[in-house]
């Protein structure tokens, strides 16, 4: 058989592509439910991690059910909104911020309660150096002081920007406040190695990961801005 | 009489022992004399990109091993059917399919590992070692030698990767496998982590130093002027 005949080459290529395509499509389709479930459980784990609740993938769903007592959706103005068929948990902020126009976006908020104390968890998404970054920031009942945070990334540089998912960086946010009196100032991430001790609105970035660190700051500033009216309203109600 | 002797000799020839000297060399050569990174200078790209931490280097090496064995076996099995004019694209399709398959399986069953590898799994497709071995070896050899060749080259690639990652993580972050090994007291005395180690250029320099050591110790590699 002459394997270099044109007709053979076409037939061979066609068969190869069909076989490979079918195998990949089959693998992708049959593994999809497992993958989706992994992503869902991981989201629950991340939300819980921002309020310092450790959960393995197996127990994530149960703990999420137990601690998250309320899921709220806000519109772009910061008012509580509803959308048909969607819950706050369904909103993938990375996608939402990228594909939906600003005025039509929904912003999820998760209310956590343990022993009567409430925390408010805000999901956020932004850009690092190479790709998307996202995270969850939990606020104390005063909706001002950061109680905990968790960040993650898609493709940041290992050892540099990728360190934003490490506790040493995330813990720096604890106790920082986003309001200066009544004014919203967010928390700024400054270039690595800076002295930020005593400044409640600044966090030291990662040396060598400045752009990613700044991305975290920008993401917080922009996302939290939407929640300000809601936070302020609830702060007044609490007084 | 002589005819029968000849016939048995011919009959015996294909029965090469599984680990004959020739086959053992397929495993051992890539580790040193014919190392894919330091001698053939293939796969340098990933050696620079993912050697910041030992853990990633190990997982990357294992993934390359799996893909390489699969690709070498498939190409070797199809070697008489692949038209030589389109062989490169055929190899590429096979490698890409395997890599995507590995990625999908990792995502479904070991989600943690898959998250750690993130983009690097995709980068395996572009690893020149795999294409290089398919082109240079698997296309012209039987299944078993191709299998050994895949293991040998993946191991040769892996140990360099891990060695470089060890040096970079140790001096760049004072850690190995994520655990701190340089004691705090060193830092108190004014020791600093070398930030340059974390950046890609230092991987190139580390690989260069490994080549230097290797060439000065291995007499076979010393070139005569």
Largest sheet descriptor of chain B: 2 strands, antiparallel
Give the strand order, joined by hyphens, for the main sheet of chain A.
1-2-3-4-5
Rg of chain B, rounded, reads 21 Å
* Biggest sheet character of chain A: 5 strands, antiparallel
Query: Over the alpha carbons, how many angstroms does the gyration radius of chain A reach?
Result: 22 Å
How many domains of chain A, as an integer? 1
- Tertiary shape of chain B: globular
Low-confidence stretches of chain A: none
Query: Order of helices and strands of chain B, N to C?
Result: HHHHHHHHHEEHH
| Overall body shape of chain A | globular
**Alpha plus pi helix count of chain B:** 11
Low-confidence stretches of chain B: 1-12
Distance between the termini of chain A: 87 Å
Mean pLDDT of chain A: 87
Overall structural class of chain A, as computed from helix and strand content, comes to alpha+beta
Q: What's the β-strand tally of chain B?
A: 2
Number of strands of chain A: 9
State the helix count of chain A: 5
What share of residues of chain B is helical? Answer: 55-70%
The SSE string of chain A, one letter per element, is HHEHEEEEHEEEEH
Strand content of chain B: under 5%
In brief:
Chain A has 239 residues and is an alpha+beta fold. Chain A has helices spanning 6-49, 57-67, 93-99, 167-170, 210-238; strands at residues 68-74, 107-114, 117-127, 132-139, 146-153, 179-180, 183-184, 188-190, 202-204. Chain A is globular, with a radius of gyration of 22 Å.
Map the helices and strands.
The complex is a heterodimer of chains A (239) and B (225).
Chain A: H1 6-49, H2 57-67, E1 68-74, H3 93-99, E2 107-114, E3 117-127, E4 132-139, E5 146-153, H4 167-170, E6 179-180, E7 183-184, E8 188-190, E9 202-204, H5 210-238
Parallel strand pairs in A: 8-9
Antiparallel strand pairs in A: 1-2, 2-3, 3-4, 4-5, 6-7
Helix pairs in contact in A: 1-2
Chain B: H1 2-12, H2 21-28, H3 44-49, H4 54-77, H5 87-109, H6 111-117, H7 119-123, H8 128-136, H9 143-173, E1 175-176, E2 179-180, H10 184-188, H11 200-217
Antiparallel strand pairs in B: 1-2
